[in-house]
TrEMBL record:
Pfam families: TP_methylase. GO terms for molecular function: precorrin-2 C20-methyltransferase activity. Gene3D superfamilies: Cobalt-precorrin-4 Transmethylase, Domain 1 (3.40.1010.10), Methyltransferase, Cobalt-precorrin-4 Transmethylase, Domain 2 (3.30.950.10). NCBIfam families: cobI_cbiL (TIGR01467). Belongs to the precorrin methyltransferase family. It comes from Lutibacter agarilyticus. InterPro entries: 4pyrrol_Mease (IPR000878), 4pyrrol_Methylase_sf (IPR035996), 4pyrrole_Mease_sub1 (IPR014777), 4pyrrole_Mease_sub2 (IPR014776), CobI/CbiL (IPR012382), CobI/CbiL/CobIJ_dom (IPR006364), Uropor_MeTrfase_CS (IPR003043). This is Cobalt-factor II C20-methyltransferase. SUPFAM superfamilies: Tetrapyrrole methylase (SSF53790). GO terms for biological process: cobalamin biosynthetic process; methylation. PROSITE patterns: SUMT_1. The keyword Flavoprotein does not apply. CDD domains: Precorrin_2_C20_MT (cd11645).
Length: 234
């Protein structure tokens, strides 16, 4: 095994290519191989948010290696893809390469990289993670609305399923961030109609298609995309 081999988990930030750390960009510029995640749809179409960010950095595209995730409830196909991708990474590691595996947002927050990290740690490979800006941090900046102050409590909920779940969060926390909200808007609307809340909605943050709003009526006219979130404050 080459002692110079190393694997980096690199956070790309939420969409704006400038919102990467200096360290993260330096690693990408020096990497021998760059793995990036994407989505494979039933139609066969491939799409990668990470690749769209990577393309701004004028890197050598021959270093890019995509792994496209086909989502299914049982996650059988996804698990197999992680296994296959890791076998490729392992071969690169044995060659003594400097490997970067990127993730949009923060590499430790709802990131596909975490599944590969589990395998990397089992092999005791040399690995380093570079944290990044999350979508909800950028949302707070775009809305000019701090997430929390002093002793206020913050909770992040993905795919909230029931009114009771959201109501409980709003009872015990000052700020509630809802992510992966496409299927949750019915629940959100019912709960928000019962009280007085400040609501900030954001979609496709940091891209040319960014949209933000604080009016629930306006929000409900949107075709909610995957890359969207809502922040609720009492």
């Amino acid at each position: 095994m080459n002692t110079k081999s190393i694997i980096y988990g690199v956070s790309l930030g939420p969409g704006d290519p400038d919102l990467i750390t200096l360290k993260g960009l330096k690693v990408l510029q020096e990497a021998d191989k760059i793995y990036y995640p994407g989505s494979l749809f039933k139609s066969g179409v491939k799409s990668s948010y990470s690749l769209s960010i990577l393309e701004h950095y004028k890197l050598d595209a021959t270093k890019f290696e995509g792994f496209y995730l086909e989502m299914d409830l049982a996650r059988v196909k996804v698990s197999k893809l992680y296994d296959l991708t890791f076998e490729q990474i392992k071969e690169d590691y044995k060659k003594g390469l400097k490997i970067a595996i990127v993730s949009e947002g923060d590499v430790n927050t709802f990131s596909s990289f975490s599944y590969l990290l589990e395998k990397i740690k089992k092999e005791n490979f040399n690995v380093e993670l570079i944290p990044g800006i999350t979508s909800y941090a950028l949302a707070a900046s775009e809305h000019l609305a701090p997430l929390c102050l002093q002793n206020e409590k913050l909770i992040i909920l993905p795919r909230v399923q029931t009114e009771a779940e959201l109501e409980e969060a709003l009872t015990y926390f000052d700020t509630v961030v809802l992510m992966k909200i496409k299927s949750a808007m019915g629940v959100v609307n019912k709960v928000l109609s019962k009280g007085n809340y400040f609501v900030n909605y954001s979609e496709k943050l940091g891209t040319k298609n960014q949209f933000i709003a604080s009016n629930l009526e306006e929000i409900n006219k949107r075709d909610i995309p995957y890359f969207s979130l809502i922040t609720i404050k009492k």
